[in-house]
Amino acid sequence: MNKLPPEHPLPVDPERVTTSEPGADHPVHLVVTDDLRRSRLTVFFRLILAIPHLFWALVWGLAVLFVVIIAWFAALIKGRVPDGMHNFLARYLIYTTRLTGYTNLLANPYPPFHGRPGVSYPIDLHVDPPQPQARWTILLRLLLGIPAMILAYVFQQVLGIIAFISWFVCLFIGRMPKGLRDLGAYCLRYQQQTYGYLMFVTKRYPSLAGPTP
Predict the structure, then answer these.
(1) Given CB 3.0 to 4.6 Å as the disulfide criterion, which of 28, 107, 128, 167 pairs with 101?
(2) Cβ-count burial 139-167 (b if 16+ within 10 Å, e if not)
(3) Main-chain phi, psi angles of 28, to 5 degrees
């Protein structure tokens, strides 16, 4: 009997299809499908183009503050965040992930003004459905989150430095270096996991595990 020839899987461009894991088991994790190409024109005017989003993020953020307070009381009573509140907070996290990715040159397309999941964007966030949470961790969430907040602040500064360097590089070559993109995505991932923890979207502490995307 003739043997069938071995199957050879189609080659996959590692710069196009990547994720930020093995942290994919975390309820809040980054998904990266960026192809590294950048428009020099939009890179040059990136912060100006983002002004409408910055105003919208501020308004949405004020609403999120009130929802987080209500979610805190609800979670203390029920042991979990109600679905509607969870979805509202998750969409804000998704939206700010896309916006931060855009303003820091981790993505090229202009982001949508919503945080609906399932929209294809080069730097995106996956958020799992709500799960039961221990009430004592809900009560002490801010205190427990202090170490993560300090580290998230450090990563925020690193991301700013990456964006500053990348601005010049992208203007020169029209492309984002993969190493800078991956390091920036790693910083962004930790920040969003920290916000997800503080906003009761997840009970899981932000993770440093896993390589860059």
Answers:
(1) 107
(2) eebeeebeebbeebeebbeebeebbeebb
(3) -120, 105
Grade residue 118 by pLDDT with cuts at 50, 70 and 90: confident
Q: Is residue 117 part of a domain?
A: yes
Share of the chain above pLDDT 70, in %: 87
Tokens read off for 202? 């997840």
Give the other-Cβ count within 10 Å of 175's Cβ. 16
What sign does the dihedral 94-170-44-36 (CA atoms) show? negative
Contact, 138 vs 75, CB < 8 A? yes
User: What is the reported pTM?
Assistant: 0.86
Q: Closest Cα to residue 90, out of 54, 129, 45, 41? A: 129
**Residue 15 domain-assigned?**
no
Query: In sequence order, what are the residues at sequence separation of 6 or more whose Cβ sits closer than 8 angstroms to the Cβ of residue 169?
Result: 175, 176, 177, 180
Task: Tell me if 196 sits within 8 A of 130, measured CB to CB.
Answer: no
pLDDT tens, residue by residue, 3-13: 444 444 444 34
Q: Which residue has the tokens 């942290």?
A: 23
Structural domain total, the chain: 1
Query: Which domain range does residue 31 map to?
Result: 23-198
The rounded distance, in Å, linking the Cα atoms of 121 and 109 is: 8
